[in-house]
Amino acid sequence: MLTVSPNDRFEKEFDGVQDVFELQRNLNNCFAYDLVPSVEVLTAALKAARRVNDFPTAVRVFEGVKAKVENPDQYKQYLESLEGLRVELGVALREELYPQEA
Questions:
Q1: Distances from the Cα of 85 to the Cαs of 1, 34, 61, in angstroms?
Q2: For the whole model, what pTM was predicted?
Q3: Within 1-102, where are the H helices?
Q4: What is the pLDDT of residues 24-82, one digit of tens each?
Q5: How far apart are CA 40 and CA 101, in angstroms?
Q6: Using CB atoms within 10 A of its CB, is residue 23 exposed (0-12), middle (13-18) or buried (19+)?
Q7: Which of 18, 61, 73, 92 is the most buried (most CB within 10 A)?
Q8: Which residues contact 73 (CB under 8 A, 6 or more apart)?
């Protein structure tokens, strides 16, 4: 029996997203697990947010990661891994948008 990893499942689901509701539903499911989503899953989610033109949800992806990681260094590692895509898609971080709250 062939098993599909959660990463593969979520990547496939984000690749098929066609509207904001579907994007947000998949993100809720993805972040419901105890683990932080992989960089590959987050990449697929950010590309889906861009495809459906949902900037606020793209920003919230990073907020979700920040809330799920165990420490600030892990968050920095995710930011470094996703920096190129974040710049390419024009996704700002909440701490960039509202520096006084950071």
A1: 35, 25, 13
A2: 0.90
A3: 6-15, 20-31, 39-51, 55-68, 72-89, 94-97
A4: 999 999 999 878 899 999 999 999 999 999 999 999 999 999 999 999 999 999 999 99
A5: 29
A6: buried
A7: 61
A8: none
Q: For the chain, how many residues are written?
A: 102
Domain coordinates of the chain in residue numbers? 6-97
Asked if 55 and 21 count as a contact pair (C-beta separation under 8 A), the reply is no
Q: What is the pLDDT of residue 1?
A: 54
Amino acid symbol at 6 = P
Exposure class string for 27-58: b at 16+ Cβ within 10 A, else e: beebbeeeebbbbebbbbbbbbbbebebeebb
The dihedral through the CA atoms of 53, 55, 61, 64 has a sign that is negative
**What is the CATH architecture of 6-97?**
Alpha Horseshoe (1.25)
Tell me the pLDDT band of 17, cut-offs 50, 70 and 90: very high
